[in-house]
Design goal:
There is one protein chain. The protein has about 750 residues and is of the alpha/beta class. It has 2 domains: about 350 residues, TIM Barrel (Alpha-Beta Barrel), CATH 3.20.20; about 280 residues, TIM Barrel, CATH 3.20.20. About 40% of the residues lie in helices and about 10% in strands. It has 24 helices and 21 strands. The strands form 6 sheets. It has a 7-stranded parallel β-sheet. The protein has a 5-stranded parallel β-sheet with strand order 16-18-19-20-21. Strands 12-15-17 form a 3-stranded mixed β-sheet. Strand 20, helix 22 and strand 21 form a beta-alpha-beta unit. Helix 14 runs antiparallel to helix 15. About 50% of the residues are buried.
Amino acid sequence: MNTAPPPFPTSTVLGYPRIGPRRELKRALESYWDGRSTGEELRRTGALLREQAWRRLGELGLGALPSNTFSYYDQVLDTAVLLGVVPDRYRGPSAEDTYFAMARGTEGVAPLRMTKWFDTNYHYIVPRIGADTVFRPDAGKPLSEVREARALGLRTRPVLLGPVTFLLLSQAAPGGPAGFVPLDRLADVVAAYERVLALLAAEGVDWVQLDEPALVADRTRTELDAVQAAYQRLGSLEQRPGLFVASYFGDLGDALPILASTPVEAIGVDLVHGGASALDALAGKTVVAGVVSGREVWRTDPRRALAALLDLRARAAQVVVSTSCSLLHVPYDVNLETGLDPELRRRLSFADQKVAEVVELAGLLARTPRGDAPLTPVPVPAARAEAPPEPKGRSPYAVRAAAQAGRLRLPVLPITTIGSFPQTAELRAARAALAAGEMDQPGYEGRVRAEIERVIVLQERLGLDVLVHGEPERNDMVQYFAEHLEGFAVTRHGWVQSYGSRCTRPPILHGDVRRPEPITVRFAGYAQSLTAKPVKGMLTGPVTIVAWSFVRDDVPLRDVVFQVADAVREEVRDLEAAGISIIQVDEPALRELMPLRRVSQGSYLEWAVQAYRRATSGAGDRTQIHTHLCYSDAEQILAAVDALDADVTSIESARSHARILGEPAVAGFGRGLGPGVYDIHSPRVPGVGEVEKSLRAALEALPAAQVWVNPDCGLKTRTYAEVEAALVNIVAATRRVRETGGAQ
């Protein structure tokens, strides 16, 4: 560039929530998808939410406002559209039709794969890149948001996913040359980014943020060379904005000195979840210091944060105070939570409070003279809970399998679902009426029992072999348990986006965990009384309960998980005593909670497996234990999944086009396995032939005696019409495979 960019403002955040304080985006999206509103109405909602976000950040005193962090579905999908990576099969009559077809599919076309965003519960859409993919950059979205903000009298910094992370998160398109990986297309992708940066510079943009979170994981020499090549080339552009490369979720490690050697002007470091290693390499750079956590909800210790900032200021040209990552992962405003215990609420900090903390720390840093010695943080030793003695383990699998076969007498290729059935508007209204005091507990439970009966009758009519009660009493698979366990608090408005329009309210785990009384036994027992077929008891596993909560930071994570495992074990024992013959303890977050660096992964998997086995150790040999994992690259941890020692594991496969079946570890999997045959995150209904093809692929990888038939995940987000149509086809396909000898 001809001139250096202006100095970076002293405070910023890497992103801000986008669903709306009252989930306005969720409602607008679902209205548009259902055909109750137009694309223009959806766009108006998006513009209003962006304006509200920018104005709120300005009111809080933030120095630099990010833009292009708003998305109608997912920022990785947005990047694919930005670069023109849109397969022809998804192109529709409008831009919205094309965009949502990639995310959700259409009646005739399956959507792109979806998986977890690093070690968070956010899901992203996985782009497909081939050796012949043509990149057609279109900077319309980031440019339009810059102009929107300017019309409001505000200057913003566009945020783009960086080219290296985009390629590392992408999947190779099928049918390409042997050995091809998306990173092979780096030069072409960087050329597309050059075009986008030139357009932003022509628009008068001073700074652009390029997110490269993939660099905090272990990277090969080839991948690090790609970082060097990409940012040397982008930094050498004649006309471009200032480049701010942001990292988060950990330490940059070997990538830090490489980035620092390129012409980029600013580098973001996560000082909450990363370390302070190699920061001397940042001399001469602007450093955006992530000292306020963007993922946890506890107030920042200003003494510790300021000490880190002062230490960094002694090494860098300029220090900007920021969050460790985007605030996408926390709720909007703790002041909305008037029902929380006041003492707990004083300890909490949601998105708006974190922005205020960033601004306050920037002021403290500015008022602290240069040369002052860094403040020494006061060490706070972590408490360690006293773990109870290790419970007695279960019998070997062969012994259990024989006992369960004699009790359950299931057919080959048993058909089941993951647990939840659609949450109807009537159910949600009844739950809201109960919370508002407009319906009494007996009335509410009567409504729940009626829904359980409906679900049991439906499953029996369709011909499923192992039934579920449908979970009509549950708002969320983690929050429901948090509401019944001591040590947790739940919020009223603490919504966080999981994917698209799907939002969750993560509970706040703030104290020791205990189970005062049985949680699920009453409704599970009622469901079992309605049928002679086995009904699964449905529990959430200890790792997932902790991973999908905001967790106390004064006790090691392992100890917290073990406390929850002991509560789950008590529930397993009570379900078994009530006559439940199959108990599913789901662990979809097992892969998600795993550290990003290999050096820490082994110890994590060891205690995570321990926790699961602890939770299920109370079951006898005749009780069949199931578990479930979904949308989390589970193929990376199949050995650990096998070590969980569950009798049956159901796993996502349909959305990822059965790629897990090609893993060598699947052939050696020692227990029952149900690769999903129905992608429940898409409204499309799979045909009989499509399901049959999936089943035959599973039978090529596994013996028929081990294969179960099930959807990818729970059916909560679908309608009854979609669910019934899909299950009819699944049953028909399974019977066809059984009858034609494919399951011998």
